Task: structure prediction
Amino acid sequence: MNIEFLLSATFDNRRVIPNQDRLFKAIVSSLNEVNINPLVMISEFSIIEDGNTLIYSFHPSADPIYFEFKTGTLFITISTGSFGAGYHRFIVGVLDRIARRLDIEFKEDAVHKDPSGYFKNRDFESLKKFFVNSLADYAKMLIMHHDKGFSNFMISMPYNYPVIEKEYFALSALGYWGKNWFTDFIDADEEDRLTLAADFFLWDTEEMNAKFWFKSFISMIWLYFPFREAIDNKEKTMYKKIMYAFQEAYKKDSSLKYPWDILIDIAHYLDDENLARFIESKKTDNYQQTLQIGFKLERARYSIAAGFTIILPMRMNVFKNDKSLIEFKDINVYIAMQVYSFANEEIDVIMEYVLKQIDIAGEDKGEKLDIKSQSDKIESIVYEKELEDNDHIITVACAAKKLALLAWFTYSDAAYRDICLEAIKSIDIEN
Result:
C-alpha cells in the first residue's frame, strides 16, 4: 500500500540560488528545530553517494523523504503508505515549514500529484476518508490475489526486508494480519471502517497521542528488535528510539497494555537500571505476556550473491561488503560467505577448484561432517574443528552449475551448533 507524490520548487531571480551543501544544511536545520515536534528524537538523515540527494527519515517504520537538488530546482519525493492520515498531514506541514524557511513555493508534479488532494485542499476529514477508501481497495486486491493462490503479503515493509519462512496471510510494521480482518473491513460500514482503520494505521489522528507513540515503539520492536544485546551502535540507537517512544506513550497514557518484559530487557541492554526498575514496578498493572511481538523471533530466507539463499534466524545482522561477500553476525554466531562464478557447468570440477582454495591457506579443515545441503541442485562438503576458548568453526563448500559458495560458520558455544547445521542444510540456489 503506497501513496506517493512529487513536489518541486525553483529558486528564481528573486533569491540567491544556494549551493547544494548550504541548501541541505538549511533543510536539516529547519527540521531539527526544537519546536517542530518530538519526532526529531527518532529521526535521522543521510546524503547518498552522488551527493545530490538528502534522505530524511522521520520515523524508523516509515518510508523516508527524498530531497534532490539539481539545476537550481529542489525536487521532493514523498511516500506515506500505510502510516496513515496523521503522518500525511504532518509531512505536508513539514514541507510548508521548509518552504517558509527558504522562501520558496512547492508545486505538485503535473503527473504525480498528491492522490489524496490534501496538499491542495488541506481538508483532514477528507484525507482520513481517502486513507480508509484506499485501505478498502487494497484489502479487496489482497483477497483477490489470495483467491488466485497467493499469500504471505508484505504491506509497506522496509526495502529488502527478509522473506519470513512461515505461512501467514499478510504482515505490516504492526505485525501479522489475518484474512478475516481484511474481509471484515471490506464488509464494514463507513463508521466501522474508520474504527478499524485507526488500528491498522500507525498515525491516524491529527495529534501525536498516546496511541501513536505506543504503535511507534511496537512497530520498531516488530521490525528491528532482535531480542538480545545490541552488537553495534546502530542497534543500540534503535533500542534508544524504542525506549523514547515508550516513555512518550506512557506520559500520555499509563494504562495501555505495554510489553513490559521486552521493555525491561531493552532497559537492561541500555544499562539503564533505574529505567528497568521503574518498568518492573509498573508491569503489575495491565500486565500481558507478549512473546509473539517481533518478526526477529522468526527465521527468514536471505539472498546471497549469484542466487544462493540460506535460512537463518532473523535476529542476525547482515553486512554486504561487496558483490560477492556477505556476513551474518550475532552475539554467539558469525557467518562469512564468499561466492565464485565459473564458465564451467561441471559441478565436480567446480567443487575440486573450491576445495583447493580452502587448502591454499594450509590450515587443518578439521573433521568431515555427514551434513549436506538438502537441495538437489548443489553438492556440498562440510568440515568442523575446535578453536580456542570453546569456539568452533565449520567450513562449507557448495558447488552448482557455474557457481560455488565458500562459507565459514563460527559459533561460541555448543548450544548454537544446531543453528549452523540447520542453516547449512537450507543452502539452496534460486531458480
Q: What stands out?
A: Residues 124-147 form the longest helix (24 residues). The longest strand covers residues 333-341.
